[in-house]
Each structure stands twice: as structure tokens, then as C-alpha cells.
Amino acid sequence: MDIILIPGLWLDAGVWSDVLEPIRASGHTPHAVSLPGQGGEPLNATLDDQINAVAATVDAADGPALVVGHSAASTLAWLAADRRPDAVARVVMIGGMPAQNGSQYAGFFEPEGNLIPFPGWQEFEGPDSDDLSEEQKTAFEHAAIPVPSTVSHATVTYQDERRRTVPITMICPEYSPADVEEWRAAGQIPELDGLEIELIDIDSGHWPMFTKPAALAGALAAIADRS
């Protein structure tokens, strides 16, 4: 199965480097998406540009694909299911959940000009980053790409209710499956109301592709096997 890998904020397709070979060894075909504005053209990209880039990768897949989004890109993965419900076999959300219809894609930080630079590790102290080494943190900061505010502060618009028929797996890194169930019960993930979701725990911080790449690749391969 083709496994489409979408990076979260500030990262390009290289974030998936350490999971590609283990996925290939499992018999599946990974495709790390180069998002416009995050390592891909145009640099002044919009959210629609990113949606179109993901949809184009889905269109090029050999059959229905497993679409994986990390962090904020969990919304991009869900938007792919919205735009291509018949071509997405399952959506996997790693450390994130889809934004509500009509809300901002990722309006967590104030823009500096028209860009959202990486805000520094103080914003991610604790379980998010405890398992990252100082070397990994430094490498992350050097590689971080400011995200256009035309992406981060764009309004999310879903178009096709058939997305709700696409199976969902949530991989829980710095939080637990029990946390997700609690948030859902409290109505904090309205886009997923009423949907069945597979929850998988992984013992890592927010970036398991850096700190637990073999475990993450194994989880994704196993999900693809049963999809």
C-alpha cells in the first residue's frame, strides 16, 4: 500500500527520513510530501496549495492510500479524505486531530509579518520534547521553516460528508488514548463526533519520527497491513 506522509508545522518532507526504509522493508511504499511553503514551491503558499499538493499525491498513488498527518497536518490528512474520499483507505493522525470546519488551520502563534517562525522550545517544554536530545533540538531549530500565515491562519473548509466514512487511526505520542477519549467525551474534537476511531499508544514525545522511528514505522506498516 502507498503510505502518504505529511509533515507538520515548520518541517519539510525530510522529517520522515528515518521511517522511509523501515516502511519499504515492510512491503509498503512511502511518499513523503513536500508541502508548498514548507520546502516546496511556492514559498508564499496558501492552505489550498498544500491541500492540492496532498491531493495530487493521493491521485498518483497505486490504489487507495494510507494518508498520514503529523500534528497540525492531521487536519491536512483529513482534508485529503474530504477531497478524495474514494481514494483514501484510512487517515492516520499522529499527535494531532482535525480542526473544526470554519476554524483556523493552525492559528496557535501570532505571525511575524506574514510568517510563523518556530517559536522555540519553551513552547514545547515537558512531554512534547522531553525525549529529544539537545542535538536533535538544535538540528530541528536549524531546519525549521517559517510557515506562511496564509497557511496557518487560513480557514478550514470541508466539502464532502463522505469523509466521515473514511476509517481513522490516531497515534498518541505525548498523550494517551484515554486522554483522547476524555477530550471526545467533553466535545473538544467536534469534527470527530460520532465516528469510530482506532487509538494506538506510542511511548514518545511529540515527534516520534525523530525519537522512535522504528516503532512509528512498524505501527504505520501494521495499520497499512490491515487497511
UniProtKB/TrEMBL annotation:
Species classification: Bacteria, Bacillati, Actinomycetota, Actinomycetes, Micrococcales
Entry-linked InterPro entries: AB_hydrolase_1, AB_hydrolase_fold, Sec-Metab_Biosynth_Hydrolase
Protein name (Swiss-Prot/TrEMBL): Putative esterase
GO function terms (MF aspect): catalytic activity
Residue span, AB hydrolase-1 domain: 3-218
